[in-house]
């Protein structure tokens, strides 16, 4: 027999009224069982057990946090068992030229894909700043006095450069080496800059990656020591040690496919292009 919508709603309403009347006549039907479960001795015991367990765990963690000897199984990458800082070793890379072999033709593919249209001179570069990011002031690196380039990069390259400087800080910290800033020696170049450079720099290419705002050079023979001008002088660190740490940072980012890197022997720099 087919039931109409009206009949169905009437039947549903009658059921609701009937259940409501049962609830009014027998109020213990709904609430008594839940109250009985809560007040039962077994549940009371379980709640006390859980509460005691919580306080016990909290006490153990508090003791372990304040007493290094009480946490034999809690090992840390940054602290020894006696609470002193772990000094990580410097590994560097095996051979610089083999670890950073990315030639100009390889880097140029990424530069053409990710970069801006090359500019003819400084005047045209001034009109293209909307496509570029100013990198002349940053807490993680120092930009050298630029004679043949301007301190602008495409956003992706600017982020890469900042990550290199920040990772370099982190690596120095965990290795127990005083903080130093890397020095950026060359950034974006105009075609006019390239032609002028080719007169005395054999590495300067007519179709250089520096034209596209995707590429920068980081010197590996000079660094800026970070120290409080009113505080004690930082201990001297060999440039070779800093170069080894920087090579680790660049190698990690290169292995993550964040950049291409070319080791420049004559110019004393790492030639880096974002990818």
Write a brief caption for the model:
The chain is of the alpha+beta class and 275 residues long. 45% of the residues lie in helices and 12% in strands. It folds into 2 domains: 5-70, no CATH class; 96-274, 2-Layer Sandwich (Muramoyl-pentapeptide Carboxypeptidase, domain 2).
SSE blueprint and pairings:
Layout: H1 5-25, H2 28-39, H3 41-66, H4 96-99, H5 104-114, H6 122-126, E1 133-134, E2 141-143, E3 152-153, H7 155-174, E4 180-186, H8 191-197, E5 215-219, E6 224-225, H9 239-255, E7 259-264, E8 269-274
Parallel strand pairs: 2-4
Antiparallel strand pairs: 1-3, 4-5, 4-6, 5-8, 7-8
CATH topology-level fold name of the largest domain: Muramoyl-pentapeptide Carboxypeptidase, domain 2
- Secondary-structure element order, N to C: HHHHHHEEEHEHEEHEE
> Roughly what fraction of the amino acids lie in strands?
5-15%
Overall form: elongated
Individual helix count: 9
Helix content: 40-55%
**Segments where pLDDT lies below 50 for 5+ residues?**
34-38
Distance between the termini: 72 Å
The main sheet comes to: 6 strands, mixed
CATH class of the largest domain: Alpha Beta
Taken together, the total number of domains comes to 2
Structural class: alpha+beta
Number of strands: 8
Whole-number average pLDDT?
A: 82
Based on the coordinates given, report the CATH architecture of the largest domain: 2-Layer Sandwich
**What gyration radius follows from the Cα positions, in whole Å?**
34 Å
